[in-house]
Amino acid sequence: MPVIPAPPRAARTPALLGTQLLFNVGFFAVVPFLALVLTDDFGLTAAAIGLILGVRTFAQQGMFLVGGVLADRFGARRTILAGCAVRVLGFATLALSLLAPAPQLALFIGGTVLTGLGGALFSPGVNILVADAEQRRAPAGVRSRASLFAWLSVAGEFGAVLGPLLGAALLGWGFVVVALAGAALFVLIAVFLALALPRRTPAAAERGIHGRWWSLRDRRFVAFSALHAADLLAFNQLYLALPLQLARADAGPGVVAAMFAWVSALTLVLQLPVSRWCHRVGAARALRAGYGLSSAGFVVVAASVVVPLDASGRVVAVFVAAGLVVIGHLTTNPTAQGLVPRFAEMLPTGSFFGLLSTCGGVAVLLGNVAVGALLGWTTVPAAAWLLLAVPLVVAAVWAPPVAASAGRASGDENEAGGC
């Protein structure tokens, strides 16, 4: 009679949340200053900088599917630690490119790509462990509660706030010090995780499941991932289209910084209450509301460029839009991640988490090119904003029915469980 292996021990939730916080501290201490280095040390144009940073983003988001498949095959713990090692190598390469007698652009670009690949390895592994911990939680009963994915978002946002402060404090000693400090932090993170994570974590090979690319075989999930990509494209406009709109309103860097502070404040204050609301109303309604709110944000900006407004009115419109987009993202993103185990059912979840992020990465890469071109189109000044709103409307109509079908094959009819 074959011996059935014992289920892997669950990772402790505080360790996972602390890991997400430290990941974002290390990431945001370094990456926001890449554009500054490319300008000051390498003298590149804005277009060249945008291309390099776009490649970095795609190396992370676009490769999530590969990272998820590797996590399914070798286990979440191994891929998380491998991702930390790759990111350490990436940050060290960034520093090395500036320590040479003359700055080495090729080496710097290689370092930026490695930082993205590191995230593509460890982020799906973290999602797998969070989903595993979520499924092992005691039932909430009649009390609504925030999902662990919502807590993960809050922990990550704290890291996103603290990271740039750390990087800015170190930048006075030069970017080399910033990059090496980021590398040292990820070394410490890797040591911590090597001790904190259980040695046996979910892996397809350990569970006797053979095969690859499970998510690509599920047409429902492929459709859902393609529709949900509109959310990441919308959220990415906090860093592209909305700051450009503020610049057109003659708003200075202080106003842009205030917008990001507004976004962080909304995330920290509203993520957990929004997640509890999602748990009460169910996945389908939460998705419909979230996509609708984000779409409304872009409609607000579209109206502001058509209706004659003064500079202050256009700034207010951008802040309103940013708020709606963020609240929409707080609603849809944890909900979509919480649905992944229901789509996967008894299959490994790594490739499913990977596909969800990879579709978003492709949408950002292609969508930003289109949005950037349309922002300069004076014939229809609202075209870029309507282009961003339309995919969200489509997602609001089509994604909820697909989400409601998740888990039906195994008899799971509890729609609220996906939040």
Automatic annotation (TrEMBL):
Residues 1-407 form the Major facilitator superfamily (MFS) profile domain. GO terms for cellular component: plasma membrane. SUPFAM superfamilies: MFS general substrate transporter. It is a multi-pass membrane protein. The chain crosses the membrane at residues 21-38, 44-67, 79-99, 105-127, 148-167, 173-197, 221-242, 254-274, 286-307, 313-331, 352-376, 382-399. PANTHER family: MULTIDRUG RESISTANCE PROTEIN MDTH (PTHR23517:SF2), RESISTANCE PROTEIN MDTM, PUTATIVE-RELATED-RELATED (PTHR23517). This is Nitrate/nitrite transporter NarK.
